Amino acid sequence: MPISLPAPAPVKAGTATHCPYCALQCGMNVAAGETVAITPRDDIPANAGGLCQKGWTAGELLTGGERLTTPLLHGREVGWDEALDFVADRIRAVQAEHGPDGVAVFGGGGLTNEKAYQLGKFARVVLRTSQIDYNGRFCMSSAAAATNRAFGMDRGLPFPITDLARADAVLLAGGNVAETMPPFVRHLATMRERGGRLVVIDPRVTATARQADLHLQPTPGTDLALALALLHIVIAEGHVDEDYVAARTNGFDAVRTSVAAWWPERVERVTGVPVALMRAAVEILAGADRAAILTGRGTEQHAKGTDTVSAFINLALALGLPGREGSGYGCVTGQGNGQGGREHGQKADQLPGYRKIDDPAARAHVAAVWGVDPDTLPGPGRSAYELLDALGTEAGPRALLLFGSNPLVSAPRAGRVAERLARLDLLVVSDLVMSETAATADVVLPTTQWAEESGTMTNLEGRVLLRRRAVAPPPGVRSDLEILRGLAERLGGAEGFPADPREVFDELRRASAGGIADYAGITYERIAAETGVFWPCPAEDHPGTPRPFLDRFATPDGRARFTPVEHRGPQEDVDGEYPLYLTTGRVLAHYQSGAQTRRIAALNAAAADTFVELHPDLAERLAVTSGDRLRVVSRRGETEGAARVNPGIRPDTVFMPFHWPGANLLTNPALDPASRMPEFKVCAVRVERAG
Ligand SMILES: Nc1nc2c(c(=O)[nH]1)N[C@H]1C(S)=C(S)[C@@H](COP(=O)(O)OP(=O)(O)OC[C@H]3O[C@@H](n4cnc5c(=O)[nH]c(N)nc54)[C@H](O)[C@@H]3O)O[C@H]1N2
Ligand SMILES: Nc1nc2c(c(=O)[nH]1)N[C@H]1C(S)=C(S)[C@@H](COP(=O)(O)OP(=O)(O)OC[C@H]3O[C@@H](n4cnc5c(=O)[nH]c(N)nc54)[C@H](O)[C@@H]3O)O[C@H]1N2
Ligand code: SF4
Ligand SMILES: [Mo]
């Protein structure tokens, strides 16, 4: 693989690089030998010497026996030329019959910036298809839509993560960082050691909630009402920062009026959260000199996720937090490159630099970098679930190229997605392992992974990091960039599709220049020398932007926008037939669809199988104890899991992780109108004893 990188920074042991998994992108040293040794780096502020169990055991991804090393064509091992010729021939045939949109592309928020950029370019320039989207739609999209609406910019945390340690209060709504980003908890712990206080909103007593000074435990899907009540109390008790609101925001009057009807007693009936706890939360936030409000997927993965985030942003704005040093609103981003992956054009409505694909100036700029006529660039396509749901249908794409996602396990209403994938004329999956989705593909392309290749990742703070190659890939495996180059070569020309990540990054810098997510001044050398550079960074002599909103917001007039929002219930409420809420999420030991972590012995030992968490009262009614098999049934499907009785969950709610096939057979694909986020976090189910 062609590679040209600055010399790695001197490290204790091995090559300084970053974790394969989540958006904290913990720094780690990877030393290759018979086995791979991993030690945490202490120069990366996000983890500063810490790693979670997934990070510590990530070496097994490199040495484990379940690695794909040969292309597969209908299950048969073939050479790369045969595999790529077949894919190119089928793409040509499908497009001849169904037009450019007959072929779709699905990407992932785990892909490096270089891959995400190249995938978007490949779709628009080589395939000329509008049908491209990615799994980040299931992840960050509601927070992105709400922050764009309020601040004119979507950067997960618009401040360094270490600011949290200096806050006097943090409200974390719908995030379980103790399991999803364990080293994150250190920043919160430091805050608490300094006397700061942590408020957590979660329907379950999670490992994170147990560390909180105050825990609010709402019914799933009612955070919007809760946020309205918190703002109602802030206004009623005179805690609005009127000077800030006047100087830095627009639109407060409409919001002030709209929350008037959401008095705390009414919201107690909607959410189940006692009024006294709502008042206590406001007291903590309003009494803090510096405070942050953070949201996670618990509040965002709803058909009203965008409005829910807007309600929390309204609360933050009324308290005068965003754009003040040491305070703010932030979204706790998810996948390894969840931030960068949503900036460079693998999203249906987007071009690099966080530009809009329907903006003529954006099209002209990017087309010039790509050396094509702007009129040849397609327009916006379908969002992730809508795309998956359209596959193989009369009006939908007939072929799919999938890079970095396992939707048979992770997409909502996965039974429907399986039907759709089965109807395709061509399914091509690039992966490291035989994921559930790869196992159904016509063509499987074995690709290199994190420490076997280099590229940049943008962490949850908007800090662009260099994930260096630390070990040689197994013989026969190609990088995603090489795969895209190979396909481009067969479909019209490899020019503009280099396989060297650094060449791709240099083009990405030019394509993003002048955009919201401007990487023009970021180089591999700078990242190495400065332990990451915050975007926007428009020039090589620009210092980067750790706190983009200190002077102005990214809106045309520089002011933040309040948005009035109204509460409504979940898309599917409980009834006699389906009397319980199901919510879904994560456990410490596994990552996402589990394609990677279910192949690691230590992680399987820590968490071997799926489960159904339920309250003791419900367990008694069903006459089950922990370990008994349960069947969980929704209007869309059914699955089984072992009962895990836990007094920390609401009696009206059950929880399942989605790391194993099953939970998503149940979930509701109702979509948020603005972000097209599915309602992963609440649907109606019935629970029975199995067998
Ligand atoms: N171990 C592990 N870590 C990960 C990942 C992983 O798969 N495994 N994935 C990474 C990715 S991509 C992401 S997006 C992040 C996600 O990180 P988090 O957002 O922290 O993860 P979740 O477990 O999906 O959801 C958080 C919490 O939301 C709660 N919740 C459910 N419904 C509601 C509700 O209606 N309201 C509120 N307030 N809370 C609710 C759940 O009980 C859960 O504890 O984690 C990242 N880190
Ligand atoms: N019920 C429920 N469902 C959910 C969620 C939930 O909370 N509840 N959360 C949603 C969220 S936030 C997310 S982010 C999604 C994630 O769900 P998925 O999109 O399925 O994500 P992963 O399981 O990480 O899948 C990544 C796949 O790509 C492969 N891979 C890793 N690196 C690379 C690479 O560089 N190149 C290529 N070609 N392949 C690679 C991995 O081996 C794996 O098979 O799930 C969503 N689904
Ligand atoms: S917290 Fe995230 S980035 Fe850090 S070691 Fe764990 S999985 Fe890796
Ligand atoms: Mo995610």
UniProtKB/TrEMBL annotation:
What keywords does the record list, in alphabetical order? Answer: 4Fe-4S, Iron, Iron-sulfur, Metal-binding, Oxidoreductase
What EC number(s) has UniProt assigned to this enzyme? 1.7.99.4
Q: Which SUPFAM superfamilies match?
A: ADC-like, Formate dehydrogenase/DMSO reductase, domains 1-3
The portions of this protein that span the membrane are none
- Please give a single GO biological process term from the UniProt record: respiratory electron transport chain
GO molecular function term, any single one: molybdopterin cofactor binding
Provide one Gene Ontology cellular component: membrane
| Group of enzyme by EC | oxidoreductase
Per UniProt, residues of the 4Fe-4S Mo/W bis-MGD-type domain are 12-64
Would you tell me the protein name for this molecule? Assimilatory nitrate reductase catalytic subunit
